[in-house]
């Protein structure tokens, strides 16, 4: 079967040539344009699939306004394609955080490594990176600079191991320094493309790494996955201090409002483990009770508390599995317990639906 490099028009601008001016050397800006935004549309176009197509204030003066306003606004036909594409995906898990910098992508990577372990073919796991403006998973798996390809069956996810694969916008950018400056419709279009055009195949788990917050990416993922049986559960990542917890409460409120069941919360950076002596100490003080108090307030489970270990950052920078490199670390032990509990809850379908 012929394999071709994936092309999403229009292409991102190439990196500036060496030796140019400071302006020419500025970071390349990703300008991929999903097909639901006409090329001659104004800046604030809501997209042809929106119920506001042709009616929104930003549509005034657009040459497509009449066509958009009179076009049928029925169910999105692509939802049926998403459902068919994901019919062989058993569990779909979101990794969420209200605050950036709490280690959400690192937790996603650890889940990917651990969930995919075991006999070949039994625990096949896919990772979908929808942190469009800050994709970290290509670096954490040592795959920066690689490119996705497509066949007649669809876009091929990149293989990390024989049982773990990854899709990320990071594989579509001209360089790891390229900025993605998009409004909501463009982000939604790419997320839909990852779900309907990627040849995921048979998967035990699909782990979706989302950006911080509760915005377009989260709404799009939940909407599209609803057509494929819905999200099986969300893993909420926080750190112990209140500045993180206050945003996690917003994330939990989001899950309640869109009916996403919560598997539980992971308290990351919960203390520090010295790799030399094994001693532990608190770096971020849980002044309001940390994840334990949060879980009590919301009636959810603390899946585990992961201590800081400086070797986690080192392993991520080198694209290595921390779990394999340092299995004796208290952080590795915590992660394996967390994954064990997630597996139990997925198989029992016992995630908490917040009332």
From TrEMBL:
Residues that bind ATP: 98-105
Keyword Cytoplasm: yes
Main localization, broad class: cytoplasm
Homology family: Belongs to the Mrp/NBP35 ATP-binding proteins family. NUBP1/NBP35 subfamily.
Matching Pfam families: ParA
UniProt subcellular location: Cytoplasm
InterPro entries: Mrp/NBP35_ATP-bd (IPR019591), NUBP1/Nbp35 (IPR028601), P-loop_NTPase (IPR027417), YlxH/NBP35 (IPR033756)
Residues at which [4Fe-4S] cluster 2 binds: 274, 277
Keywords, alphabetical: 4Fe-4S, ATP-binding, Cytoplasm, Hydrolase, Iron, Iron-sulfur, Metal-binding, Nucleotide-binding
GO biological process: iron-sulfur cluster assembly
Keyword Protein biosynthesis attributed: no
A cellular-component GO term for this protein: cytosol
Residues that bind [4Fe-4S] cluster 1: 45, 59, 62, 68
Region (Disordered): 1-23
GO MF terms held by the record: 4 iron, 4 sulfur cluster binding; ATP binding; ATP-dependent FeS chaperone activity; hydrolase activity; metal ion binding
Protein name: BY PROTMAP: gi|472581015|gb|EMS18776.1| cytosolic Fe-S cluster assembling factor NBP35 [Rhodosporidium toruloides NP11] gi|647402740|emb|CDR48956.1| RHTO0S21e02454g1_1 [Rhodosporidium toruloides]
Protein source organism: Rhodotorula toruloides
General function of this protein: Component of the cytosolic iron-sulfur (Fe/S) protein assembly (CIA) machinery. Required for maturation of extramitochondrial Fe-S proteins. The NBP35-CFD1 heterotetramer forms a Fe-S scaffold complex, mediating the de novo assembly of an Fe-S cluster and its transfer to target apoproteins.
Lineage: Eukaryota, Fungi, Dikarya, Basidiomycota, Pucciniomycotina
């Amino acid at each position: 079967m012929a394999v071709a490099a994936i092309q999403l028009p229009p292409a991102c601008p190439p990196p500036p040539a060496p030796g140019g001016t400071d302006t020419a050397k500025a970071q390349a800006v990703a300008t991929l344009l999903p097909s639901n935004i006409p090329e001659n549309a104004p800046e604030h176009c809501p997209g042809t699939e929106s119920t506001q197509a042709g009616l929104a204030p930003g549509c005034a003066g657009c040459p497509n306004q009449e066509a958009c306003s009179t076009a049928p606004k029925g169910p999105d036909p692509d939802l049926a394609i998403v459902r068919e594409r994901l019919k062989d995906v058993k569990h779909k898990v979101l990794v969420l955080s209200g605050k950036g910098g709490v280690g959400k992508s690192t937790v996603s990577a650890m889940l990917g490594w651990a969930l995919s372990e075991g006999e070949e073919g039994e625990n096949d796991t896919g990772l979908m990176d929808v942190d469009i403006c800050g994709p970290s998973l290509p670096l954490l798996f040592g795959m920066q600079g690689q490119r996705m390809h497509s066949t007649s069956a669809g876009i091929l996810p990149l293989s990390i191991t024989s049982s773990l694969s990854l899709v990320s916008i990071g594989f579509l950018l001209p360089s790891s320094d390229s900025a993605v400056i998009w409004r909501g419709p463009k982000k939604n279009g790419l997320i839909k493309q990852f779900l309907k055009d990627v040849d995921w195949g048979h998967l035990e788990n699909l782990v979706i790494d989302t950006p911080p917050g509760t915005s377009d990416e989260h709404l799009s993922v939940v909407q599209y996955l609803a057509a494929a049986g819905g999200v099986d559960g969300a893993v909420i990542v926080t750190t112990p201090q209140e500045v993180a917890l206050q945003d996690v409460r917003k994330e939990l409120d989001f899950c309640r409002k869109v009916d996403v069941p919560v598997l539980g919360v992971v308290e990351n950076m919960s203390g520090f483990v010295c790799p030399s002596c094994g001693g532990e100490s608190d770096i971020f003080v849980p002044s309001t009770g940390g994840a334990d108090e949060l879980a009590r307030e919301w009636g959810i489970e603390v899946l585990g508390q992961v201590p800081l270990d400086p070797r986690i950052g080192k392993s991520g920078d080198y694209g290595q599995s921390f779990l394999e490199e340092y299995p004796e670390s208290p952080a590795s032990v915590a992660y394996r317990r967390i994954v064990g509990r997630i597996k139990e809850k997925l198989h029992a379908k016992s995630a908490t639906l917040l009332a």
